[in-house]
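[job 4471] stage=fold_predict status=RUNNING
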Amino acid sequence: MHIGVAYADKFKRTWLTLDVPDGCTVREAIERAGLLQQYPDIDLDNQRVGIFGKFTKLDAKIKDGDRVEIYRHITADPETVPRRDQDDD
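[job 4471] inference complete, writing structure tokens
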């Protein structure tokens, strides 16, 4: 199966494509992509993961063409940060 794995930290975005065997799980795809070595701050026990923007579990099976995503924790409180889409009238 041909899939993608994506992660972004504050400084860099990474999107890798790779071939994985049928029956591969989200966790296995992340491990095969090498992102845990490239980003040692990733903690799969505490970070959410998803497929195409929908939360999923690490043991979920992936399908051909899926994009596995690792989500970071929110670092700013959305209640206190000004919105970027508002005009400064």
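[job 4471] summary: The longest helix spans residues 26-33.
[job 4471] exit 0
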